[in-house]
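ok here's tRNA-splicing ligase RtcB:
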Amino acid sequence: MNEISKNIWEIPRSDGMNVPAYIVASNSLLNKIEQGAIEQLKNVASLPSIVKGAFAMPDIHQGYGFPIGGVAAFDAENGIVSPGGVGYDINCGVRLLKASVYKDDISQYIEKLITSIYSNVPCGIGSKGRLKINRKELFSVVTSGVKWAKKKGFADSADIDSIEDNGFLPRCEPSSLTERAIERGLPQLGSLGAGNHFIEIQYVSDIYNDEIAEKMGIDTGMVTIMVHTGSRGFGYQICDDNLKSLRHKYGNSLNLKDKELIYAPISSVDGQKYISQMHCAANYAYVNRQLITHWIRESFSAIIGNAVNVDVVYDVCHNIAKFEKYNVNGKEKKLLVHRKGATRALGPGNLLLGEKYRAIGQPIIIPGDMGRSSYLLVGTKNAEKETFGSTCHGAGRLLSRHKAVKATRNIDIEKALGKQNIKVMAKSWRTLHEEASIAYKDISEVIDAVSSAGLCKKVAKMRPLGVIKG
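and the structure:
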């Protein structure tokens, strides 16, 4: 590897790679990246029609086909789309809310708030939402996005203005969905799920950019709430359905280094079907986070009083493929940018941003782990130039779930967090151990790596007060 600029390393073309591979990382983080993830990145660089390079963020770890923390762009006219480049949890993403109260105002209410939200928002493996919707309503959700939630009284215009894509991706045709995907989507709308998904009550501990923080309405000591979840079993099934159908049709004809990298031409019937269904899952996920927001608001009102406001700062997805335009070799090209465990980081003035944040750049929300901190950032023009407007999405795992459980078997995680004045509630003992801080890289080190590389600017840091895990 060669460091071609601050914290950006190049793996030159070799072994059938069509483009170089690039890793964004400090020296310290580079040494923590598993070899399997690097091999996956090189395999991605070998795919046809890939443009410029295959990119990995400092939170990279091994995934299905594409590494988690990976970015790859393909020519929109003659390129490919790969479900593995988006992942199973389509539009897994993060929403940041801000409350009109401060840490000292609610210290006595944290346990009651966590208990209320835990009761209000279904969570855990296979959890079912509170809403009972039929097939027709599900189709309305996936073809309307958060506009459906507004119509039903779960959202307002201010919410929609603060969501990536305004909470809606077009070109959805739900009639192509399998019955199994529909069956899984019907009961789970408005549920958190399990694994690394969470709801976290936080407070703003540090402000790094006063001007941008002020424009976002963020202040030191302010209470924030972070929601991390996606499209649940609905998105999983859509990914699985398309992987199986593509393997059946193309598996024997493609010379793949890894069968998990199966793809279809964007312009093909199969490619268009996947993109349509991916958009359905993305809209489902936007609505899912909106419903959870509504129930969080109910809990704050019930525990603290109706005078408290809970507003959306921003909502971003980090498992998605989107058509975007970038300058490649001096020419503007339309590309399909796959981000799997990577967050869009568009700079100031980009027309893909709504008017609310266009002047400052896209807000970026990066969770850490339940024992440390999370960050609010904004995108840069340099990110558009270097990484197709992309940055990291989290801390990135150091230990597998199994190894994390083994390493913390004799530790009372709830008690340990309590010593840090962090209240935690979870559906299972195992989830807490799988998600212990020891399982993750240090989020502050990851953020320093991407900000030093010029992919984003730090705005604020938030520390946890209470955590809900599925």
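+1. Residues 13 and 20 are 5 Å apart (CA to CA).
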